[in-house]
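Q: Sequence in, structure out?
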Amino acid sequence: MYRRLLAVLVSALLLLCAAPARAHGPAAGDAPDGIPRLTDDRGRVLTLRGWNVEDKTHRGEAALSAITERHFRDLRARGFNFARLLVFWDDLEPVRGRYSERYLRRIGQVLDWARTYRVHVVIDAHQDVFGPAFGHRGIPEWATRTDGLPFTAHPDDWFAEYFEPAVQRAFTHLYEDPDLRSAQAGMWRVLADRFADHPAVIGYDLINEPMGEIREGEDLPTAARRIEAEQLTPMYNRLADAVRSVDRHTWLFVEPTPIVGEGVPTGLGWIDDPRTVYAPHFYNTAMEAGADHDPSAGWIEAYERAVTEYPARHRIPVVVGEWGPLNNALPNMGHFYRDALASLNRYSSGWAGYVWCYGGGYCALDAEGRFRTNKEQTAAPYAPAVAGGVTAEGYEPESGTYRLEYRSSPGFSEISVPPGASGWRIEVTGRAWPQVGTVPAGRTATVRIHARPGGHVTVVVRPRTPR
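A: Exactly. Output:
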């Protein structure tokens, strides 16, 4: 019921706020004005393409056991370079003040697999409906305070549980109680201290899909903006201070409430850290409830307008932390994937689909390890790293052609290609040369491009013409 109510409220808001789609704008592949790109420690422009990796089933001694080396081998084999790794505070600190060394070692093992296959990892402090006190995962029971307010489970619509009074009050206590603030900061100091120097770790997502308490008389968008401004912003600044006490360099990923996914601009304020990444999620309520994509509804355009306002104003990169519909084989879903990928690639430094697993539901792959319907569109050529300033970038799914233009600086750039039925041809113009000019059929490759600094370089990747 609550999810249907959310859909009605947000749909009404979109009808009021929607503007016509842009008739003009940045060139294909360019971010909107003011949104910088993510960079590495050599100053290269980074693009992250990948998937979430999770184990929500096992806990305690078996925690994370569903994640195997195969996950990262298969990610890399299809050209992806990024994983958002879900970890849970209730597993890390099951008893207050006692951190699980076993869990930390297990996280380390997963990160070692990522390093072996050259996959960047964001460690995500994940919560669903707050945590185990409400039958989910995330914030420990000892850190859950409800003031005796009621909770009713909604097994057929778990998102509705966020609107239960006990869950909403638990978020308020997390944000406002000094001892819980300190405990959350301590948890992040432990994680950051342990993994600050791990080569696979590129960032920390400080909390997944934070929610809060709706006050009497507030509509949902107003409540979301207040929670973001008055509770999430100070929380992120506290956690940034905690992480920086032990780790000075790793990127910090901050999320708005999930309401931004319906085209509602965030109320987040300034995060006082120079290595902050805006990390919204990209879900549509109607599609999550089982509906097909409606290309005429303008949802993707409304989302892009809403989600780019904050990072453009604060000049921070964007990486979309989760996206992808449940029912990916519905008639319009091929259209959705084409439009969604074009939008995401326009303004973001990367994205992580949900979720890299083998089976049904949200899984990217079937039990035999083949892409499920339409999800193969996520595997396409891209530039994981560019030594220089990107001036134009774009991918044409109809022809399978990727084009990159940049002004070169010292260092080498990288072009990633997934397995192709006919292989790939890499053509470079300017004072530059590729490591190889062709990639055989069925092969994944990361091709280095060397260029003399200061020149204009164009790289075109297209399928080879079969003989």
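The CA atoms of residues 233 and 270 lie 7 Å apart.
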